[in-house]
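Collaborator request, handled under Task 6.
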Amino acid sequence: MQRKISVIGTGYVGLTTGVCLAYLGHKVICVDKDKNKIQRLQKGIVPIYEPGLDEILKKHRKNLEFTTNTKDAVQKSEVIFIAVGTPSQKDGDIDMTYFRQAIREIAKILDSYKIIVNKSTVPVGTGEWTKKEIKKHYKGGFSIVSNPEFLREGSAIKDFLEPDRIVIGVEDEKAKEIMLDIFSSIKAPKIITDIKSAEMIKYAANAFLATKISFINEIANLCEKAGADVKKVAEGIGLDKRIGPKFLNAGIGYGGSCFPKDVDGLNKIAEQKKYNFHLLKAVSLVNKNQQKKFLHKIKNTLKKIDGKTVCIWGLAFKPNTDDVRKSPAIEIIKGLQRSDYKIQVYDPVATENAKKELPKKNIKFCKTSFEAAKNADVLALVTEWPEFSELNMKKVKKLMRHSYFLDGRNQLEPEEMKKLGFYYEGIGRK
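Structure tokens returned to the collaborator:
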């Protein structure tokens, strides 16, 4: 059955959710306070880089409306998805400003029964707060649902339409049936649970994956000292079905808008509940240290050869996205800038976003991988874009002043690079 839905917020999660719900055949109104963003979306211009998103938007435009008018969108809809940003604060707590503003605005304009679905990542207990807050302003019937997202930037469309599972935290049968109907055409396990458990599932999932990454990075550090190869170690443990091969790629740590925020957020929830989550604190510390270790590798190599110029390949926190939030590349570049090194950087799509985050000191944004490598003393690969492994490395070596290659993502093979004449060093490679 076609449902009338509004999505509040058109960031990565909100826009992907709205477009994919339209793909499923629902009538969707996407709402955002940013007039410029809405005007661009009305013209079919997608403001973020997400493979496949613009094609689906154009193909299912008849099911989509973009507006800044929250009242009109809410009153036309039976289901309202909240997908506003909930960024980290300096102390690791979650900034709920936008979420609370959205709920209070919605509460004041409700005119009939609605289902308010939370897609934003929020602390456990937010559903309870939402219910109490709405009741202050609206005396009619409504339902609160938690429907956490598990979208990976770069593969968000596939993750929405072909998910491992759909989690629905709900309190009443009516909301449950409507939510199941919305996702009826998606063939995936539907986990029906209470709202608090659904809120916890999102944090627990991301925290576990972050733990897996920090674990393999610690193993990589030990491999370097013991003379083992972390790629073979990861392969050997990944074939154990209880462990699995995913998230066992050693490197310079995780970044992005989810893992750092959710690890810190879950730590903060634990603190507020007076529980000392020792493991999660270690996960965060290991991740930060991994970036520092790679920065030291670059600096130590430059000192050894009296070099001044560093080529950085990759600015996004992962491939197939233009997102540089909490990107290891940004932190590494800032560290090099503080030491007055000359930096030449290249990324296929994230350059403009990186320019907003980085100081202008001693940095050149290049248009190609080759331009970034020219006259470099050290080349550091920090984002595993597929194109980097497909380049003519003989040409890269000729362009560089010194042929030191530091592979922060273990994307290339040591023996092959050494045969080409590079001084190659990966993370935990033999």
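The cover message to the collaborator said: "The chain has 18 helices and 14 strands. The longest helix spans residues 195-226. Please let us know whether this matches your experimental observations."
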